[in-house]
Amino acid sequence: MTARLDSPLKVTGRARYGSDHNPPGMVFGYVVLSTVAHGEVTAMDVTAVRDAPGVLAVYTPFESLELHTPHNPIMGATWVPLQDTDVAYRGQPIGFVVAETFEQARDAASLVEVSYRERTPLTSLEDGLAAAEDAPPSMDGSPHTVTVLASGVESIEDALAASPVVVEATYTTAPQNHAAMEPHSAVAVWESGTLTVYSGNQGSDLQAASLAQALAEPLSAVHAVNPFVGGAFGGKGATSVPAFLAAAAARDLGRPVKAALTREQVFTATGTRAATVQRLALGAEKDGTLVALRHDSWSSTPMSRAFIEQTSHSTSREWYTTPNMVISQKMVPLNIPPTTFMRAPGEAPGSFALESAIDELAVELGMDPIELRRRNSSLAPPGKDLQWSSKHLDECFGIGAERFGWSQRSEGGRVDGDWLVGLGTATAMFPALRFPASVRVTLNADDTAEVATSGADPGTGLLSVLSLIGADSLDIAPERVTPRLGDSALPSGGMSGGSTATASAGSAIMVAAPEVIDELLTLAAAPGAPFEGAEVSYADGRVLATDGRSLTFGEVLRAVDRSSIAAVGSSAPGEEMSKHSFSSFGAQFCEVRVHRWTREVRVSRMLGVFDAGRIINEQPARSQLMGGMIWGVSAALHEGMEIEADGRLANGDFASYLIPVNADIPDVDVQFVQYPDTLHNPVGARGVGEIGIVGVAAAIANAVFNATGTRVRNIPIAIEDLLDE
Amino acid sequence: MDISLQINGKSERLSVEPGVTLLDALRERLDVTGPKKGCDRGQCGACTVHVGGRPVLACLTLAATVREPVTTVEGLASGDDLHPVQQAFVDQDALQCGFCTSGQIMSAVAAVEQDVPDVREFMSGNLCRCSAYPNIVAAVDQVRGADASV
Ligand code: FES
Ligand code: FES
Questions:
Q1: Domain limits at B36?
Q2: What region holds the Aldehyde oxidase/xanthine dehydrogenase a/b hammerhead domain (chain A) (predicted)?
Q3: Partner B contacted by A675 (CB < 8 A)
Q4: Is the complex ipTM more than 0.90?
Q5: Which end of chain A, N or C, is more open, meaning fewer C-beta atoms within 10 Å of its C-beta?
Q6: B99 in ligand 2 pocket by Cβ < 6 Å?
């Protein structure tokens, strides 16, 4: 077991996050947000602001910093602030005040007088359903509606009508904010024509590229540094507003600029998870065999229509075997803050609906819900030929049922004093993906090695993974490997997102390491080198000759007078995609206690058993899965953005946007079944960042039903949902 | 106004506006960046430091009102030796991104020193969005267990 390598820096306060940088001469920027949800800024009176103490500059759409819309392959276009006067949501950045101190910038920003031409905002998903638009194709290119019908079946309606048992229900999920503990922030420094930006982000090279595009500077002039990121969860995939503004203002003023969003600003000026409505219909034989599945989804989306939470495509498309399936995705554009990727985008809210519906079907059939899931387990996504590369979901359920005491569960739950106790379960799935990544592996003359990539470790443990896979590939102890990341000057590691970093960077290491070893052997046997002309091989950090002689790689390098040698390896998704379907799997179990009188819901036990391929570093992997599961508790019982009719966020701070605190969380049991998936990538790991959250909200709602007999089809579940009429 | 602060055993003199918080004085004037700003409103605990040995929220404390010595997460370790609570956070993997960690550790030190009856309740003023909560409790228990066995 290897500890998280950056823990010593983090527990002593020595890890410097973006806003912990204080270069000499630095000044402070403060972002100004719109106070209406829809309309146009007609004027901004900044006279008082300019006269305020310490103020150096005020930027508005009328006196703006020039910024161009950047594009990247993963995030698409990123919105840049202050380029026009349109207001599409309340809390949209419309100004930036820079002053000598933080307090001066903040106080001066409160003096900005804004005039608007207001228009009536659309803010209610429910009201907008009737006017919903078809969603654009999903990320894998599938159209908004996918239909799979058995031959001879005319329509999904026919298939449902012919099903002996049918359940139909509509589920809703609340919009959410990532609420990473580190607010989006940046420190920007221009020095001799080069910009260095310290800003927490999920990929330093992508951030550098987007800043270069936004500022119309060559990529070589922008350096993004973020070895520590204070939580991301999808919310730091795009370059943030403070990063754009700090960079542009620093160039304009010739001084380093620090800018951070306040916690309240983070809720609207970054990204959020969309609200969803999902209508499900399941048709089954009396023995539980699914014969028809219909899953219609609606997602809120900002007026830019930039991001849709794809719930049916992310779940029902693949999870169960069924001869007849129709899924659809629509979107409802609203005057709401931007939506974006958030931990298990699509799968998290989608699994609440699908896995609740499966539980409802089990109740209707009088069948054990695990048995029902086993019976309909898919070998391949419906209508596709490509089978799952490695699927051990039944084993996850078997281990889980045993560990959790599932056989003790009774219909109607049990009573413990004033508490009604129920058990619930759900399936978790998350696709196994890879992004292109490059890693440099260096052998040094002092017998150490370095593994370096620009990717980010926002708490995932990637830093330790680099050292472990590096050590494995070089056949040396991990202590001799220095991992480096979070710097755009390093080979492009891409985005830490989609649970891909281990598989992507790990595969690249496994390309780079043999290359650098080959170079070492060539050097070792070259004329004048210690093994001149000999047949050599490599093991255990040493070059070995057939005659029994051996030297460490450091000794070889010193002998040939080289301080180091390096190779860069790259990997990307390849032909495996045409041979199999890839996903991780898991079985979620929850026990809840609902108070008989107050209807308070407490989660008292949780277990997740996961089939995520090979686990590289158990403790951080366990922690990350546990964190994901707790996010599921949060979604089920705590968090949801409450957007009022005028577009104001009613609970945009940590006092009123509820996320679990320590006392809300019981012990969480995380188990793995480990089947390395080398059909997917040479490392055999499929990633654990997101699957932990998937299914948990449904498992909790199902447990609440078991305890109380009340089926709640919305999250977060509130006390009101459990009061008797 | 001119004030003087005792930070991790060092005397610091500085000139601040009356409205400057202890958190901003530490982070922006003294380059003591272990304490973090997660909310600036007393709602997250990321800024927790000790003043006169008691945990306080540095974002809700005006720098000019501080008379007693201040200890931040930087002041816990002696040389290369981690404070037992810091070591327990490493051992129990009680952090992921680490942004809440300095505040968690300052509260955890107080939990150990005060021998609080309910660790989960006591630690509930420190949010952790990475949700390392069970491991944070395990870290406090590790230190308390070690104390008990002495
Ligand atoms: S920053 Fe002080 S409590 Fe959040
Ligand atoms: S470790 Fe990330 S917020 Fe606690």
A1: 2-75
A2: 12-120
A3: no
A4: yes
A5: C
A6: yes
